[in-house]
C-alpha cells in the first residue's frame, strides 16, 4: 500500500538531477510518484549532457507524463494527491502558475494544488531574479505555494555534488512536511 501520491513537475531549468533525485527519494519513502516532464526539460537534459534523465524518471515514477497530456488523471482536481513539487522550475513555468495559465499539465496540476489548498513547492532556478520573477514568486506565496530557490547551503559541509543536490531536495521535502534524512541539520552539521 503506497503512502500516498505526489506529483513531480520537471521543467527546462538547469539541474534536472534535482527532479530525478526527488522521484528516487519519494518512491523510496513509499509514495506513488507521478512525474510530468516539459518539452524543454527534455531539451535541457540533452543540452546539459544528462543521458540518464529519461531512464531515471521512468525507474522511480509510477507514471511519467508529457506536458501536453492534459486529459490525464492528474489533470483533474479530483485526483487524490498529497501535493506537488516543481523541481527544477523555470521562470516561464513559475510565471504561468502565478498568472493562472493552465496551458500544460505542469501548470494545470500546480493550479489544482493552489485552488484545492494542497501543498505546492516551487523549486525555482534562475539567476538573477528581476522584478517580474519576484512578483510572480510573491503571487504564488500569497496563494499558498512555497517558493524554494535551488540554492544549496555550505553549513552542511557538502563533499560532493550529490550532497548539494540532496540538500535542495531535502529542503523541498521539508516544505512538503515529508520526513527524511537527506542532509545533516544544524547544529549537528557543525564541524
Ligand atoms: C541548457 C539550458 C538551461 C536552461 N536553464 C534555465 C534555468 O536555469 N532557469 C530557467 O528559468 N530557464 C532555463 N532555461 C530556459 C528554459 O528551458 C525555457 O525558458 C523554457 O521555455 C522553459 O519551459 P518549461 O518551463 O515549459 O520547461 C534553460 C534552457 C537551456 C537550453
Distance between the terminal alpha carbons, to the nearest Å? 40 Å
Q: What structural category do the secondary elements indicate? A: alpha/beta
- Give the SSE string: EHEHHEEHHEHEH
What amount of the residues lies in strands?
15-25%
CATH class: Alpha Beta
List unreliable stretches of 5+ residues: none
| Most strands sheet | 6 strands, parallel
Summarize model confidence as the mean pLDDT. Answer: 96
Q: Using the alpha-carbon principal axes, give the shape.
A: globular
Q: List cofactors, ions and other ligands.
A: flavin mononucleotide
What would you report as the Rg, rounded to the nearest angstrom?
A: 16 Å
Give the helix tally.
7
CATH architecture grouping? 3-Layer(aba) Sandwich
Q: Helix content range of the residues, please?
A: 40-55%
Looking at CATH, the homologous superfamily is Flavin prenyltransferase-like
Strand neighbour order, sheet with most strands: 3-2-1-4-5-6
Overall structural domain count: 1
Amino acid at each position: 500500500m503506497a503512502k500516498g501520491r505526489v506529483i513531480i513537475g520537471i521543467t527546462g531549468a538547469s539541474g534536472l538531477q534535482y527532479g530525478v533525485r526527488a522521484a528516487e527519494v519519494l518512491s523510496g519513502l513509499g509514495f506513488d510518484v507521478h512525474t510530468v516532464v516539459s518539452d524543454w526539460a527534455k531539451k535541457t537534459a540533452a543540452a546539459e549532457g544528462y543521458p540518464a534523465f529519461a531512464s531515471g524518471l521512468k525507474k522511480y515514477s509510477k507514471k511519467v507524463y508529457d506536458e501536453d497530456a492534459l486529459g490525464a488523471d492528474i489533470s483533474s482536481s479530483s485526483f487524490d494527491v498529497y501535493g506537488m513539487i516543481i523541481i527544477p522550475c523555470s521562470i516561464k513555468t513559475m510565471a504561468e502558475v502565478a498568472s493562472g495559465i493552465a496551458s500544460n499539465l505542469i501548470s494545470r496540476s500546480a493550479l489544482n494544488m493552489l485552488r484545492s489548498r494542497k501543498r505546492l513547492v516551487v523549486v525555482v532556478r534562475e539567476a538573477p531574479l528581476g522584478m517580474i520573477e519576484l512578483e510572480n514568486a510573491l503571487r504564488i506565496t500569497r496563494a499558498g505555494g512555497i517558493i524554494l530557490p535551488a540554492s544549496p547551503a555550505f553549513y552542511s559541509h557538502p563533499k560532493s555534488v550529490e550532497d548539494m543536490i540532496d540538500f535542495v531536495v531535502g529542503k523541498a521535502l521539508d516544505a512538503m512536511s515529508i520526513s527524511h534524512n537527506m542532509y545533516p541539520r544544524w547544529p549537528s552539521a557543525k564541524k
